[in-house]
Protein backbone atom coordinates (compact mmCIF):
# COMPACT_ATOMS: atom_id res chain seq x y z
CA UNK A 1 0.00 0.00 0.00
CA UNK A 2 1.38 3.42 -0.97
CA UNK A 3 2.00 6.12 1.65
CA UNK A 4 -0.84 8.25 0.20
CA UNK A 5 -3.30 5.34 0.27
CA UNK A 6 -2.25 4.44 3.81
CA UNK A 7 -2.68 8.05 4.94
CA UNK A 8 -6.17 8.23 3.38
CA UNK A 9 -7.15 4.97 5.06
CA UNK A 10 -5.73 6.24 8.35
CA UNK A 11 -7.68 9.50 8.22
CA UNK A 12 -10.89 7.64 7.43
CA UNK A 13 -10.23 5.22 10.28
CA UNK A 14 -9.51 8.04 12.73
CA UNK A 15 -12.77 9.79 11.81
CA UNK A 16 -14.62 6.52 12.36
CA UNK A 17 -13.01 6.04 15.76
CA UNK A 18 -13.78 9.64 16.79
CA UNK A 19 -17.35 9.32 15.57
CA UNK A 20 -18.03 5.99 17.25
CA UNK A 21 -16.37 6.93 20.53
CA UNK A 22 -17.33 10.59 20.88
CA UNK A 23 -20.83 10.51 19.35
CA UNK A 24 -21.75 7.38 21.29
CA UNK A 25 -20.40 8.94 24.47
CA UNK A 26 -22.47 12.08 23.82
CA UNK A 27 -25.65 10.03 23.56
CA UNK A 28 -24.89 8.09 26.75
CA UNK A 29 -24.32 11.29 28.72
CA UNK A 30 -27.44 12.91 27.30
CA UNK A 31 -29.26 9.95 28.83
CA UNK A 32 -27.38 10.18 32.10
CA UNK A 33 -27.63 13.97 32.48
CA UNK A 34 -31.37 14.19 31.85
CA UNK A 35 -31.94 12.95 35.39
CA UNK A 36 -29.97 15.85 36.90
CA UNK A 37 -31.70 18.54 34.85
CA UNK A 38 -35.13 17.20 35.72
CA UNK A 39 -34.33 16.52 39.40
CA UNK A 40 -36.94 18.87 40.87
CA UNK A 41 -39.70 17.38 38.68
CA UNK A 42 -38.54 13.81 39.34
CA UNK A 43 -38.67 14.59 43.08
CA UNK A 44 -42.36 15.52 42.80
CA UNK A 45 -43.23 12.58 40.53
CA UNK A 46 -41.49 9.72 42.34
CA UNK A 47 -41.75 10.67 46.01
CA UNK A 48 -44.56 11.35 48.47
CA UNK A 49 -45.87 14.95 48.44
CA UNK A 50 -45.12 17.23 51.38
CA UNK A 51 -41.55 18.18 52.22
CA UNK A 52 -39.95 19.41 48.98
CA UNK A 53 -36.44 19.47 50.44
CA UNK A 54 -36.77 15.86 51.63
CA UNK A 55 -38.03 14.80 48.20
CA UNK A 56 -35.14 16.59 46.48
CA UNK A 57 -32.63 15.01 48.86
CA UNK A 58 -34.19 11.60 48.12
CA UNK A 59 -33.83 12.26 44.39
CA UNK A 60 -30.17 13.13 44.79
CA UNK A 61 -29.72 10.13 47.12
CA UNK A 62 -30.86 7.85 44.28
CA UNK A 63 -28.45 9.75 42.01
CA UNK A 64 -25.67 9.02 44.52
CA UNK A 65 -26.65 5.36 45.09
CA UNK A 66 -26.44 4.67 41.36
CA UNK A 67 -22.74 5.55 41.62
CA UNK A 68 -22.09 2.79 44.15
CA UNK A 69 -22.03 0.22 41.35
CA UNK A 70 -19.48 2.20 39.36
CA UNK A 71 -16.34 0.81 41.08
CA UNK A 72 -17.77 -2.69 40.58
CA UNK A 73 -18.57 -1.82 36.99
CA UNK A 74 -15.07 -0.41 36.58
CA UNK A 75 -13.59 -3.75 37.66
CA UNK A 76 -15.93 -5.77 35.43
CA UNK A 77 -15.69 -3.60 32.31
CA UNK A 78 -11.97 -3.03 32.88
CA UNK A 79 -11.30 -6.75 33.15
CA UNK A 80 -13.23 -7.66 30.01
CA UNK A 81 -12.05 -4.55 28.16
CA UNK A 82 -8.45 -5.71 28.69
CA UNK A 83 -9.39 -9.26 27.62
CA UNK A 84 -12.01 -8.90 24.87
CA UNK A 85 -11.19 -5.48 23.46
CA UNK A 86 -12.42 -1.90 23.73
CA UNK A 87 -15.01 -2.09 20.94
CA UNK A 88 -17.08 -4.95 22.39
CA UNK A 89 -17.39 -3.20 25.74
CA UNK A 90 -18.44 0.09 24.11
CA UNK A 91 -21.17 -1.73 22.20
CA UNK A 92 -22.47 -3.35 25.40
CA UNK A 93 -22.43 -0.13 27.42
CA UNK A 94 -24.40 1.66 24.70
CA UNK A 95 -27.10 -1.04 24.77
CA UNK A 96 -27.40 -1.03 28.56
CA UNK A 97 -27.52 2.76 28.93
CA UNK A 98 -30.10 3.31 26.19
CA UNK A 99 -32.46 0.59 27.38
CA UNK A 100 -32.32 1.48 31.10
CA UNK A 101 -32.86 5.19 30.35
CA UNK A 102 -35.81 4.33 28.10
CA UNK A 103 -37.37 2.32 30.94
CA UNK A 104 -37.18 5.33 33.30
CA UNK A 105 -39.50 7.13 30.90
CA UNK A 106 -42.07 4.35 31.35
CA UNK A 107 -42.14 4.13 35.18
CA UNK A 108 -45.51 5.18 36.68
CA UNK A 109 -45.57 7.95 39.29
CA UNK A 110 -45.64 7.61 43.10
CA UNK A 111 -49.30 8.63 42.99
CA UNK A 112 -50.12 5.55 40.92
CA UNK A 113 -47.88 2.78 42.32
CA UNK A 114 -46.57 4.21 45.60
CA UNK A 115 -43.19 3.13 46.97
CA UNK A 116 -42.61 0.87 43.95
CA UNK A 117 -41.99 4.01 41.82
CA UNK A 118 -38.73 5.10 43.53
CA UNK A 119 -37.63 1.43 43.77
CA UNK A 120 -37.97 1.01 39.99
CA UNK A 121 -36.26 4.36 39.46
CA UNK A 122 -33.33 3.26 41.61
CA UNK A 123 -33.07 -0.05 39.72
CA UNK A 124 -32.83 1.72 36.36
CA UNK A 125 -30.33 4.21 37.74
CA UNK A 126 -28.15 1.35 39.00
CA UNK A 127 -28.05 -0.12 35.49
CA UNK A 128 -27.22 3.34 34.13
CA UNK A 129 -24.37 3.66 36.62
CA UNK A 130 -23.04 0.22 35.74
CA UNK A 131 -23.07 1.14 32.06
CA UNK A 132 -21.45 4.56 32.58
CA UNK A 133 -18.57 2.91 34.48
CA UNK A 134 -17.30 1.33 31.25
CA UNK A 135 -18.21 4.10 28.82
CA UNK A 136 -15.88 7.00 29.57
CA UNK A 137 -12.76 4.89 30.01
CA UNK A 138 -13.49 2.79 26.93
CA UNK A 139 -14.17 5.78 24.67
CA UNK A 140 -11.02 7.55 25.90
CA UNK A 141 -8.79 4.52 25.38
CA UNK A 142 -10.25 3.79 21.96
CA UNK A 143 -9.11 7.21 20.76
CA UNK A 144 -5.86 7.38 22.77
CA UNK A 145 -4.61 4.03 21.44
CA UNK A 146 -5.29 5.08 17.84
CA UNK A 147 -4.07 8.68 18.02
CA UNK A 148 -0.59 9.95 17.05
CA UNK A 149 1.38 11.01 20.13
CA UNK A 150 1.66 14.66 19.11
CA UNK A 151 -2.12 15.01 18.78
CA UNK A 152 -3.23 12.67 21.53
CA UNK A 153 -4.25 15.43 23.93
CA UNK A 154 -6.40 17.14 21.31
CA UNK A 155 -8.07 13.98 20.04
CA UNK A 156 -8.78 12.44 23.45
CA UNK A 157 -10.26 15.76 24.61
CA UNK A 158 -13.13 14.96 22.23
CA UNK A 159 -14.37 12.49 24.86
CA UNK A 160 -14.98 15.04 27.65
CA UNK A 161 -16.18 17.46 24.95
CA UNK A 162 -18.73 14.88 23.79
CA UNK A 163 -19.74 14.28 27.42
CA UNK A 164 -20.40 18.00 27.82
CA UNK A 165 -22.16 18.05 24.45
CA UNK A 166 -24.49 15.30 25.67
CA UNK A 167 -25.26 17.35 28.75
CA UNK A 168 -25.75 20.42 26.55
CA UNK A 169 -28.23 18.48 24.43
CA UNK A 170 -30.05 17.43 27.60
CA UNK A 171 -30.17 21.03 28.80
CA UNK A 172 -31.52 22.24 25.45
CA UNK A 173 -34.23 19.59 25.36
CA UNK A 174 -35.16 20.39 28.98
CA UNK A 175 -35.38 24.14 28.27
CA UNK A 176 -37.55 23.51 25.22
CA UNK A 177 -39.91 21.39 27.32
CA UNK A 178 -40.04 24.04 30.07
CA UNK A 179 -40.77 26.82 27.58
CA UNK A 180 -43.33 24.96 25.45
CA UNK A 181 -45.31 22.97 28.03
CA UNK A 182 -47.48 24.03 30.92
CA UNK A 183 -46.31 23.11 34.41
CA UNK A 184 -48.97 20.41 34.73
CA UNK A 185 -48.10 18.88 31.33
CA UNK A 186 -44.39 18.90 32.18
CA UNK A 187 -45.01 17.09 35.47
CA UNK A 188 -47.49 14.58 34.05
CA UNK A 189 -45.81 13.46 30.81
CA UNK A 190 -43.38 16.06 29.39
CA UNK A 191 -40.48 15.06 31.64
CA UNK A 192 -40.57 11.56 30.09
CA UNK A 193 -39.61 12.74 26.59
CA UNK A 194 -35.78 12.94 27.09
CA UNK A 195 -35.77 9.45 28.58
CA UNK A 196 -37.88 7.97 25.77
CA UNK A 197 -35.60 9.58 23.17
CA UNK A 198 -32.73 7.45 24.46
CA UNK A 199 -33.87 4.38 22.51
CA UNK A 200 -33.73 5.83 18.96
CA UNK A 201 -30.59 7.82 19.79
CA UNK A 202 -28.99 4.69 21.21
CA UNK A 203 -29.70 2.76 18.02
CA UNK A 204 -27.92 5.47 16.01
CA UNK A 205 -24.91 5.33 18.32
CA UNK A 206 -24.88 1.54 18.21
CA UNK A 207 -24.84 1.46 14.40
CA UNK A 208 -21.81 3.77 14.40
CA UNK A 209 -19.91 1.79 17.03
CA UNK A 210 -20.40 -1.51 15.23
CA UNK A 211 -18.35 -0.11 12.32
CA UNK A 212 -15.31 0.78 14.46
CA UNK A 213 -12.02 -1.12 14.39
CA UNK A 214 -10.63 -2.16 17.74
CA UNK A 215 -7.47 -0.58 19.15
CA UNK A 216 -4.27 -1.60 17.30
CA UNK A 217 -2.42 -1.72 20.62
CA UNK A 218 -4.98 -4.14 22.00
CA UNK A 219 -4.84 -6.28 18.84
CA UNK A 220 -1.06 -6.50 19.14
CA UNK A 221 -1.26 -7.37 22.83
CA UNK A 222 -3.92 -10.01 22.06
CA UNK A 223 -1.67 -11.54 19.42
CA UNK A 224 1.34 -11.63 21.77
CA UNK A 225 -0.80 -13.12 24.54
CA UNK A 226 -2.02 -15.89 22.23
CA UNK A 227 1.60 -16.64 21.32
CA UNK A 228 2.53 -16.65 25.04
CA UNK A 229 4.98 -13.79 24.45
CA UNK A 230 3.25 -11.60 27.04
CA UNK A 231 1.69 -12.99 30.25
CA UNK A 232 -2.00 -12.19 30.72
CA UNK A 233 -2.35 -10.57 34.13
CA UNK A 234 -5.42 -11.14 36.26
CA UNK A 235 -7.32 -7.96 37.09
CA UNK A 236 -6.30 -8.01 40.77
CA UNK A 237 -2.65 -8.73 39.93
CA UNK A 238 -2.68 -5.87 37.46
CA UNK A 239 -4.15 -3.54 40.09
CA UNK A 240 -1.55 -4.65 42.66
CA UNK A 241 1.33 -3.92 40.27
CA UNK A 242 -0.07 -0.49 39.41
CA UNK A 243 -1.52 0.51 42.79
CA UNK A 244 0.66 3.64 43.11
CA UNK A 245 -0.66 5.06 39.84
CA UNK A 246 -4.21 4.09 40.79
CA UNK A 247 -3.96 6.03 44.07
CA UNK A 248 -2.51 9.06 42.27
CA UNK A 249 -5.22 8.89 39.62
CA UNK A 250 -7.88 8.63 42.31
CA UNK A 251 -6.61 11.78 44.01
CA UNK A 252 -6.60 13.74 40.75
CA UNK A 253 -10.09 12.50 39.91
CA UNK A 254 -11.52 13.87 43.19
CA UNK A 255 -11.49 17.41 41.79
CA UNK A 256 -12.89 16.36 38.43
CA UNK A 257 -15.75 14.44 40.05
CA UNK A 258 -16.78 17.22 42.44
CA UNK A 259 -16.28 19.98 39.87
CA UNK A 260 -18.04 18.23 37.02
CA UNK A 261 -21.17 17.27 38.93
CA UNK A 262 -21.50 20.51 40.91
CA UNK A 263 -20.82 22.88 38.01
CA UNK A 264 -22.49 21.02 35.16
CA UNK A 265 -25.17 18.87 36.80
CA UNK A 266 -26.16 20.41 40.14
CA UNK A 267 -26.04 24.09 39.09
CA UNK A 268 -29.52 24.30 37.52
CA UNK A 269 -30.93 23.11 40.86
CA UNK A 270 -28.68 25.52 42.79
CA UNK A 271 -29.75 28.47 40.66
CA UNK A 272 -33.45 27.72 41.08
CA UNK A 273 -33.51 26.68 44.76
CA UNK A 274 -30.80 28.92 46.28
CA UNK A 275 -30.61 31.95 43.98
CA UNK A 276 -34.34 31.71 43.18
CA UNK A 277 -34.00 31.74 39.40
CA UNK A 278 -36.96 30.57 37.36
CA UNK A 279 -36.38 26.95 36.22
CA UNK A 280 -36.14 28.01 32.57
CA UNK A 281 -33.59 30.74 33.39
CA UNK A 282 -31.54 28.24 35.38
CA UNK A 283 -31.41 25.84 32.46
CA UNK A 284 -30.61 28.58 29.93
CA UNK A 285 -27.71 29.76 32.10
CA UNK A 286 -26.38 26.20 32.16
CA UNK A 287 -26.67 26.05 28.36
CA UNK A 288 -24.39 29.09 28.02
CA UNK A 289 -21.90 27.45 30.36
CA UNK A 290 -21.93 24.10 28.57
CA UNK A 291 -21.63 25.67 25.13
CA UNK A 292 -18.50 27.62 26.12
CA UNK A 293 -17.20 24.58 27.97
CA UNK A 294 -17.46 22.33 24.90
CA UNK A 295 -15.44 24.88 22.90
CA UNK A 296 -12.75 25.21 25.60
CA UNK A 297 -12.01 21.49 26.01
CA UNK A 298 -10.26 20.90 22.64
CA UNK A 299 -8.27 24.10 23.17
CA UNK A 300 -7.05 22.70 26.49
CA UNK A 301 -6.24 19.39 24.76
CA UNK A 302 -4.12 21.23 22.19
CA UNK A 303 -2.40 23.16 24.97
CA UNK A 304 -1.41 19.95 26.77
CA UNK A 305 0.18 18.61 23.58
CA UNK A 306 2.49 21.63 23.75
CA UNK A 307 2.99 22.11 27.51
CA UNK A 308 2.39 18.65 28.95
CA UNK A 309 -0.45 17.25 31.08
CA UNK A 310 0.81 17.96 34.59
CA UNK A 311 1.28 21.78 34.40
CA UNK A 312 -2.27 22.28 33.11
CA UNK A 313 -3.78 20.01 35.77
CA UNK A 314 -1.85 21.82 38.53
CA UNK A 315 -2.98 25.18 37.17
CA UNK A 316 -6.62 24.03 37.38
CA UNK A 317 -6.18 23.09 41.06
CA UNK A 318 -4.66 26.46 41.95
CA UNK A 319 -7.35 28.37 40.05
CA UNK A 320 -10.11 26.47 41.89
CA UNK A 321 -8.49 27.11 45.29
CA UNK A 322 -8.01 30.84 44.67
CA UNK A 323 -11.06 31.85 42.64
CA UNK A 324 -14.00 29.55 43.49
CA UNK A 325 -15.32 31.61 46.41
CA UNK A 326 -15.08 34.97 44.56
CA UNK A 327 -16.83 33.41 41.55
CA UNK A 328 -19.69 32.16 43.74
CA UNK A 329 -19.99 35.69 45.17
CA UNK A 330 -20.14 37.04 41.62
CA UNK A 331 -22.80 34.47 40.75
CA UNK A 332 -25.03 35.64 43.59
CA UNK A 333 -25.24 39.12 42.02
CA UNK A 334 -27.63 37.75 39.38
CA UNK A 335 -28.22 38.62 35.73
CA UNK A 336 -25.20 38.75 33.46
CA UNK A 337 -22.90 38.32 36.48
CA UNK A 338 -24.32 34.82 37.05
CA UNK A 339 -23.69 33.84 33.43
CA UNK A 340 -20.13 35.22 33.61
CA UNK A 341 -19.51 33.36 36.88
CA UNK A 342 -20.74 30.07 35.40
CA UNK A 343 -18.54 30.49 32.31
CA UNK A 344 -15.52 31.19 34.54
CA UNK A 345 -16.17 28.04 36.59
CA UNK A 346 -16.56 26.07 33.36
CA UNK A 347 -13.27 27.47 32.03
CA UNK A 348 -11.38 26.38 35.14
CA UNK A 349 -13.01 22.95 35.05
CA UNK A 350 -12.04 22.62 31.38
CA UNK A 351 -8.38 22.95 32.41
CA UNK A 352 -8.89 19.76 34.42
CA UNK A 353 -11.41 17.85 32.33
CA UNK A 354 -9.77 18.61 28.97
CA UNK A 355 -6.61 16.72 29.96
CA UNK A 356 -7.74 14.17 32.56
CA UNK A 357 -8.79 11.42 30.12
CA UNK A 358 -5.45 11.68 28.27
CA UNK A 359 -3.53 11.72 31.55
CA UNK A 360 -5.29 8.57 32.78
CA UNK A 361 -4.88 6.80 29.42
CA UNK A 362 -1.12 7.36 29.52
CA UNK A 363 -0.61 6.27 33.13
CA UNK A 364 -1.12 2.52 32.67
CA UNK A 365 0.42 -0.22 30.45
CA UNK A 366 -1.72 -1.73 27.68
CA UNK A 367 -2.54 -5.00 29.45
CA UNK A 368 -4.20 -3.23 32.44
CA UNK A 369 -4.99 0.16 30.89
CA UNK A 370 -8.77 -0.29 30.84
CA UNK A 371 -8.81 -1.74 34.36
CA UNK A 372 -6.59 0.97 35.88
CA UNK A 373 -8.44 3.82 34.17
CA UNK A 374 -11.93 2.48 34.85
CA UNK A 375 -11.29 1.53 38.49
CA UNK A 376 -9.69 4.83 39.53
CA UNK A 377 -12.10 6.98 37.54
CA UNK A 378 -15.25 5.23 38.71
CA UNK A 379 -14.20 4.92 42.35
CA UNK A 380 -13.49 8.66 42.47
CA UNK A 381 -16.82 9.42 40.82
CA UNK A 382 -18.68 7.02 43.11
CA UNK A 383 -17.35 8.67 46.25
CA UNK A 384 -17.20 12.31 45.16
CA UNK A 385 -19.21 12.70 41.92
CA UNK A 386 -22.36 10.80 42.73
CA UNK A 387 -22.63 12.46 46.13
CA UNK A 388 -21.78 16.00 44.95
CA UNK A 389 -25.38 17.19 44.51
CA UNK A 390 -26.46 15.58 47.77
CA UNK A 391 -23.50 16.99 49.72
CA UNK A 392 -24.01 20.48 48.26
CA UNK A 393 -27.72 20.43 49.13
CA UNK A 394 -27.00 19.08 52.61
CA UNK A 395 -24.25 21.63 53.32
CA UNK A 396 -26.48 24.54 52.33
CA UNK A 397 -29.42 23.19 54.35
CA UNK A 398 -27.35 22.48 57.47
CA UNK A 399 -25.18 25.62 57.48
CA UNK A 400 -27.54 28.13 55.89
CA UNK A 401 -24.58 29.30 53.79
CA UNK A 402 -25.38 29.51 50.08
CA UNK A 403 -21.65 29.47 49.26
CA UNK A 404 -21.05 26.10 50.94
CA UNK A 405 -20.50 24.25 47.59
CA UNK A 406 -17.58 26.62 46.91
CA UNK A 407 -15.70 25.35 49.96
CA UNK A 408 -16.36 21.76 48.89
CA UNK A 409 -14.84 22.48 45.46
CA UNK A 410 -11.81 24.13 47.04
CA UNK A 411 -11.20 21.15 49.33
CA UNK A 412 -11.32 18.76 46.36
CA UNK A 413 -8.79 20.94 44.53
CA UNK A 414 -6.38 20.68 47.48
CA UNK A 415 -6.58 16.87 47.42
CA UNK A 416 -5.96 16.79 43.65
CA UNK A 417 -3.01 19.16 43.97
CA UNK A 418 -1.25 16.90 46.48
CA UNK A 419 -1.83 13.89 44.20
CA UNK A 420 -0.41 15.73 41.19
CA UNK A 421 2.73 16.67 43.09
CA UNK A 422 3.41 12.91 43.43
CA UNK A 423 2.66 12.19 39.76
CA UNK A 424 4.97 12.08 36.74
CA UNK A 425 4.52 13.84 33.42
CA UNK A 426 2.91 11.49 30.88
CA UNK A 427 2.76 13.57 27.69
CA UNK A 428 5.98 12.22 26.16
CA UNK A 429 5.60 8.67 27.46
CA UNK A 430 4.91 6.04 24.83
CA UNK A 431 1.75 4.03 25.38
CA UNK A 432 3.69 0.96 24.27
CA UNK A 433 6.08 -0.57 26.77
CA UNK A 434 9.70 -0.90 25.63
CA UNK A 435 9.46 -4.67 25.62
CA UNK A 436 6.50 -4.38 23.23
CA UNK A 437 7.95 -2.42 20.25
CA UNK A 438 4.68 -1.98 18.40
CA UNK A 439 3.73 1.04 16.28
CA UNK A 440 0.05 1.70 15.77
CA UNK A 441 -1.06 2.43 12.18
CA UNK A 442 -2.04 6.00 13.01
CA UNK A 443 1.36 6.61 14.61
CA UNK A 444 3.15 5.29 11.51
CA UNK A 445 1.58 7.97 9.36
CA UNK A 446 2.27 10.66 11.95
CA UNK A 447 5.95 9.70 12.10
CA UNK A 448 6.46 9.95 8.31
UniProtKB/TrEMBL annotation:
Q: Which InterPro entries match?
A: H+-coupled_symporters (IPR051084), MFS (IPR011701), MFS_dom (IPR020846), MFS_sugar_transport-like (IPR005828), MFS_trans_sf (IPR036259)
The Major facilitator superfamily (MFS) profile domain covers which part of the protein? 17-427
Major localization listed first in the record, in broad terms: membrane
The Swiss-Prot or TrEMBL record annotates one GO molecular function as: symporter activity
Which compartment or compartments is the protein found in?
Cell membrane
Q: Where are the transmembrane segments?
A: 54-77, 89-107, 113-132, 153-177, 189-210, 246-267, 279-300, 312-331, 337-360, 372-397, 403-421
Q: Record's Gene Ontology CC terms?
A: plasma membrane
Membrane protein topology class: Multi-pass membrane protein
Sorted alphabetically, the keyword list is: Cell membrane, Membrane, Symport, Transmembrane, Transmembrane helix, Transport
Could you tell me what this protein does? May be a proton symporter involved in the uptake of osmolytes such as proline and glycine betaine.
Q: Which family does it belong to?
A: Belongs to the major facilitator superfamily. Metabolite:H+ Symporter (MHS) family (TC 2.A.1.6) family.
Q: What is this protein called?
A: Putative proline/betaine transporter
What is the originating organism of this protein? Answer: Niallia nealsonii
Q: Upper lineage ranks?
A: Bacteria, Bacillati, Bacillota, Bacilli, Bacillales
